């Protein structure tokens, strides 16, 4: 009896420990000021009402105590659910309200005579081998491909499989992924889970499911899935932490002749898989606040295409995005194209050309465009107009060599985001609604700093450089996100995320504008954590910099600024413009009350 009492006691304690009580304090928006979020200077941004919750991975805090200017991050799919929890807790602590998860690609494959799916690539001179992952898919002694073909031909002897595709994921879909359950089903072999999908080769995804009327060609899509559904786990965490999740759409197959282009020959099968996945999301996640939208993972370089309708990747985008509009009409599509500003490389683009490419991309149905800022790859530089004749930063030399900014690049990060911001305004006037975010790259072009896990030859950057990226991009975007959390924010000691947490409220000015207030003329400085700061003004020819205490003679306004990222605020200081020479670039430095200077100044060109 004592043993029974002891067992019951342990069970009761375990039950109590596993209870999770989570109350959400509203839903988070896109991260823009217009969404009505609290500015980062106030702790507990978008936090659930309770300060902590418990689960099998331990107890986790849900309070955002050190909110930073970057509010979204990319994540690599993780096999350990506790890794998701640790990552989202840390992201939320830095004020993050958005995560974008990388996904997987649809891949056409050859099969052998027994229906075994062959490996995607084979060394030259070697015979292709069966892919071990899909070799486990067996039904009634037949490979899944042969079993599907047998079932099709039982319905009509003229039916045949004319193409085989594979798709690997860590998600486990529900019955919503099946259109024709008499031919499509889940296959479980030990700890391996597969989904067998069949679609007419013409891409119609015929809803009649009439396999008997006439013999047709079909494509088999064999999905290697997870034992548990990782997206459900991620959305549960999103609900708890007040974080929006953007899962990736199936990645289009690449053109074998040019891997940077999507292959339009597979549009029918790609859109079929996309429709099925999104139908399943609609069934299982209807009304989930944490499903923020979907991410288009096929990367594209922004440029001014002579005829966008002939660009293969844009063709694939348009068809795939139409499916999203049909199946998840209330969820936006996020895409993150890249920019190449290097003068000495072919097929790069000026800011004006990128702005035209931005318009063409928006017309494919995307609602959020978050261009990569290019500093991590070295394809774009961080510099001001009055710096163009300075030598490039040392870490950029492996990419552009010994050169000045003007000889290396067509423009700076700021030039490109300004041009795209103007293009966005023109699109809105045309009735095309699209948001412009910035994707600031949290890495350096080489590992001269510090290598990070799975990130190959690129190393992590530091907080001052990340602050600088925010400074250059923020005036023209409504939200700032970063590629990527794992491993650039988590490697090293201290890690980049730890550096941010220790210095989260250092001032980050983003813009200075001449502006009058009441009867006085002066300068308005916008940025993060600028309240009460000392502002230092200097320009060429000025012997002694001018220091102004904004807390004493200035004005501070924390009202959210329409169209700018959440947390931006402004201060104003008086300036006697009669004493400032015309045409000079005024260097504006901001220093916090405790003496911390911003990593990057802003410049104002006094044109009178």
Automatic annotation (TrEMBL):
Query: Superkingdom, according to UniProt?
Result: Bacteria
Which segments constitute the DUF4434 domain? 225-494
Q: Where is this region: Disordered?
A: 111-131
| InterPro entries linked | DUF4434 (IPR027849)
This protein's name:
DUF4434 domain-containing protein
């Amino acid at each position: 009896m004592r043993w029974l009492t002891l067992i019951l006691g342990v069970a009761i304690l375990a039950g109590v420990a596993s209870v999770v009580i989570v109350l959400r304090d509203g839903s988070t928006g896109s991260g823009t000021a217009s969404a009505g979020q609290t500015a980062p200077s106030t702790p507990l941004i978008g936090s659930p009402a309770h300060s902590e919750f418990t689960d099998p991975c331990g107890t986790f805090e849900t309070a955002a105590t050190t909110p930073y200017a970057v509010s979204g991050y990319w994540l690599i799919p993780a096999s350990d659910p506790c890794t998701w929890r640790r990552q989202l807790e840390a992201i939320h602590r830095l004020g993050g309200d958005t995560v974008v998860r990388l996904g997987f690609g649809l891949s056409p494959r050859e099969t052998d005579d027994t229906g075994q799916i062959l490996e995607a690539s084979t060394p030259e001179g070697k015979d292709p081998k069966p892919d071990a992952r899909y070799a486990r898919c067996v039904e009634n002694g037949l490979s899944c491909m042969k079993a599907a073909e047998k079932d099709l031909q039982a319905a009509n002897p003229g039916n045949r499989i004319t193409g085989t595709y594979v798709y690997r994921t860590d998600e486990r879909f529900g019955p919503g992924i099946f259109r024709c359950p008499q031919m499509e089903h889940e296959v479980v072999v030990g700890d391996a889970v597969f989904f067998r999908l069949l679609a007419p080769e013409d891409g119609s995804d015929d809803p009649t499911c009439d396999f008997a009327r006439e013999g047709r060609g079909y494509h088999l899509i064999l999905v290697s899935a997870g034992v548990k559904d990782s997206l459900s786990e991620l959305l549960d965490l999103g609900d708890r932490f007040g974080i929006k999740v953007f899962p990736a759409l199936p990645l289009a197959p690449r053109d074998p002749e040019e891997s940077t282009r999507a292959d339009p020959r597979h549009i029918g099968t790609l859109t079929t898989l996309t429709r099925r996945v999104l139908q399943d999301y609609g069934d299982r996640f209807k009304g989930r606040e944490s499903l923020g939208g979907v991410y288009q993972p096929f990367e594209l370089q922004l440029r001014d295409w002579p005829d966008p309708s002939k660009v293969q990747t844009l063709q694939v985008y348009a068809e795939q995005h139409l499916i999203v509009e049909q199946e998840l009409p209330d969820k936006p599509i996020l895409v993150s194209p890249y920019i190449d500003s290097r003068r000495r490389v072919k097929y790069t683009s000026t800011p004006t050309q990128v702005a035209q490419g931005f318009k063409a991309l928006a017309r494919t149905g995307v609602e959020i465009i978050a261009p990569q800022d290019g500093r991590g790859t070295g394809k774009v530089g961080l510099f001001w107009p009055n710096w163009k004749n300075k030598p490039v930063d040392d870490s950029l030399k492996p990419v552009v060599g010994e050169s000045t900014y003007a000889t290396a690049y067509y423009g700076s990060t700021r030039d490109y985001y300004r041009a795209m911001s103007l293009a966005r305004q023109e699109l809105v006037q045309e009735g095309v609604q699209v948001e412009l975010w910035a994707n600031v790259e949290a890495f350096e072009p080489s590992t001269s700093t510090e290598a990070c896990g799975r990130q190959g030859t690129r190393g992590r950057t530091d907080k001052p450089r990340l602050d600088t990226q925010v400074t250059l991009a923020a005036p023209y975007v409504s939200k700032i996100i970063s590629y990527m959390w794992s491993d650039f924010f988590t490697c090293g000691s201290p890690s980049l995320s730890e550096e941010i947490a220790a210095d989260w409220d250092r001032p980050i000015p983003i813009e200075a504008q001449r502006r009058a207030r009441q009867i006085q003329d002066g300068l308005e400085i916008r940025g993060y954590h600028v309240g009460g700061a000392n502002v230092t003004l200097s320009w060429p020819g000025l012997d002694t910099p001018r220091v102004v205490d904004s807390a004493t003679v200035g004005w501070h306004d924390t009202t959210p600024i329409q169209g700018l990222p959440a947390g931006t605020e402004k201060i104003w200081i008086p300036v006697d413009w009669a004493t400032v020479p015309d045409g000079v670039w005024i260097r504006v430095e901001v220093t916090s009350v405790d003496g911390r200077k911003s990593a990057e100044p802003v410049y104002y060109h006094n044109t009178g």
